[in-house]
């Protein structure tokens, strides 16, 4: 469920998406609001201008939050974004410890707008060499 305050922040994210598009990048924008509702940071997509396929606004904000915010503050934030975060961004948002994401356009709705834009899955093979990798990893997380 979203609130009128959420809608106001989403409109700001949509304006950031328009800024990205006007600058020649894909039209995606996001902002991060703190626990008290103040905008802590905002970003727009720069994948083309930066020549960086990972320069999604959600990822940039989550990385910023992980660097600049303590865990308690991050856990009280809300990310507002023009489109539902992709799998890459979802993972980074989770690792950054952000509390909530509110988006305007779902990934399914995006695919309706730009059909045929998916890439084929990359084959993955494993696990393999468990004993060798276990020797390196075991004990690190204790």
Work out the helicity level: 40-55%
Based on CA atoms alone, the radius of gyration comes out at 18 Å
**Global structural class:** alpha+beta
Order of helices and strands: HEEHHEHEHH
List strands and helices in order, with pairings.
Elements: H1 4-22, E1 29-33, E2 39-44, H2 57-68, H3 71-74, E3 78-83, H4 87-96, E4 100-105, H5 107-113, H6 130-137
Parallel strand pairs: 3-4
Antiparallel strand pairs: 1-2, 1-3
Question: How would you describe the overall organization of this protein?
Answer:
42% of the residues lie in helices and 16% in strands. It is built from six helices and four strands, in the order αββααβαβαα. The mean pLDDT is 95.
Distinctive features:
142 residues, alpha+beta, 4-stranded mixed sheet, 4 strands
Short summary:
The chain is of the alpha+beta class and 142 residues long. It has helices spanning 4-22, 57-68, 71-74, 87-96, 107-113, 130-137; strands spanning 29-33, 39-44, 78-83, 100-105.
